[in-house]
Inverse folding.
């Protein structure tokens, strides 16, 4: 368990080294929401419903999907730069290494998703007047974490 | 004295280098097909009837013509990544040791960057034209109009390459360049008429979008393809906008790239 925690800690430290990348990704998602969705909302047939409200949770999932691939890119780079050889030389079993990375990936995804999830919750609260309960928010985070784990695997 | 042969040799090398990105190129082509066949068709069914009228009868045709311009833009910026890769791998030193002057090298890169993206996008441009003309055969206007539009797009790709080179030589970190370009890409595409007409944009977005080079490129292509009723920018203004964009960024890119090579600050 300790070895898995070490791997997770390492991956989380690396994650915050990409702060500019994260800021870039979040701003791109926000551009989709606050520019593209705003314009399409004026164009989409109102019979279908409010497109902005429909789009907002969708962009959170799209962002989660894109962020899930970040760890894959990182592992690929480590293989190319042969950092994986160093990782394999550590006193850590291979399954611990793999499991630690998957878990770290899931935690990273949740951290990445939080600003977008908060934006979605604010949008739905402001436009639709729906404020989810703490239990509902917890269920959403749990379901999205499981989805992210699935993507990582 | 600039030797055109040397400029062409440099441009040809960039054309060949482009083929090394075959996976990226395949993925971009698939992205284009998905945008047309999935997003374009689905959104087309979701719109209000007045939107279809505002875009000249078919939003699908409007969207297809816009999405190809965003693809042209995103492939033209590749040259900036090449410059970073070369600085990383020490290829710039090799290029400088060749019997090609710095001006020829820089000019060749700018031309190569624009030309390769135009060649890559050309077959997909034909697909878009086929889709537009097959859905409405009357939209085919005149070959001259189409030729003017193609020439304007050709200049547009040089301008975008120059823009990418300008950013690549102005930002030292490749990560920051990557992120900055991504953000610029996201904003310029969304704040333009590639995806939707100006009339449906809130005024604060439309104010920016009407001066966006992507708006000029998308509108001139739609005009050339015969979707004239969908065009909100006058063709003369669009051509003027593209020529201005091309002039500013091609020459700025060449000037800055040459200065960086001279000073060795890429190291």
């Amino acid at each position: 368990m300790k070895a898995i925690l070490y791997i997770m800690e390492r991956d989380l430290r690396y994650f915050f080294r990409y702060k500019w990348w994260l800021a870039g990704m979040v701003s791109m998602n926000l551009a989709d929401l606050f520019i593209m969705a705003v314009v399409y909302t004026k164009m989409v047939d109102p019979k279908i419903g409010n497109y902005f409200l429909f789009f907002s949770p969708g962009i959170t999932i799209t962002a989660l999907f894109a962020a899930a691939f970040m760890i894959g890119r990182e592992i690929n780079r480590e293989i190319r730069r042969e950092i994986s050889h160093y990782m394999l030389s550590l006193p850590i079993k291979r399954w611990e290494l793999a499991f630690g990375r998957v878990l770290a990936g899931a935690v990273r995804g949740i951290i990445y998703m939080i600003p977008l999830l908060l934006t979605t919750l604010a949008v739905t609260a402001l436009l639709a007047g729906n404020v989810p309960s703490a239990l509902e928010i917890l269920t959403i985070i749990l379901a999205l974490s499981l989805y992210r784990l699935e993507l990582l695997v | 004295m600039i030797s055109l042969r040397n400029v062409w040799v440099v441009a040809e090398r960039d054309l060949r280098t482009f083929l090394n990105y075959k996976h990226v190129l395949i993925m971009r082509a698939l992205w284009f097909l998905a945008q047309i066949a999935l997003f374009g068709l689905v959104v087309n069914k979701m719109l209000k009837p007045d939107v279809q009228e505002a875009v000249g009868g078919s939003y699908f045709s409007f969207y297809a013509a816009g999405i190809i311009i965003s693809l042209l833009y995103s492939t033209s910026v590749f040259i900036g990544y090449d410059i970073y890769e070369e600085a990383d791998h020490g290829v710039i030193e090799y290029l400088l040791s060749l019997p090609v002057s710095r001006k020829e090298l820089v000019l060749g890169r700018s031309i190569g960057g624009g030309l390769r993206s135009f060649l890559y996008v050309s077959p997909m441009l034909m697909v878009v034209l086929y889709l537009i003309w097959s859905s409405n055969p009357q939209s085919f206007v005149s070959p001259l109009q189409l030729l003017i539009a193609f020439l304007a797009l050709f200049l547009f790709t040089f301008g975008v390459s120059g823009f990418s080179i300008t950013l690549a030589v102005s930002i030292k970190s490749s990560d920051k360049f990557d992120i900055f370009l991504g953000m610029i890409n996201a904003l310029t595409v969304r704040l333009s008429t590639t995806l939707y007409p100006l009339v449906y944009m809130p005024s604060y977005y439309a104010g920016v979008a009407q001066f966006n080079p992507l708006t000029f490129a998308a509108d001139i292509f739609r005009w050339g393809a015969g979707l004239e009723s969908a065009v909100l920018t006058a063709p003369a203004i669009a051509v003027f906008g593209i020529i201005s964009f091309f002039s500013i960024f091609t020459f700025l890119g060449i000037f800055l790239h040459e200065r960086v090579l001279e000073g060795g600050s890429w190291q």
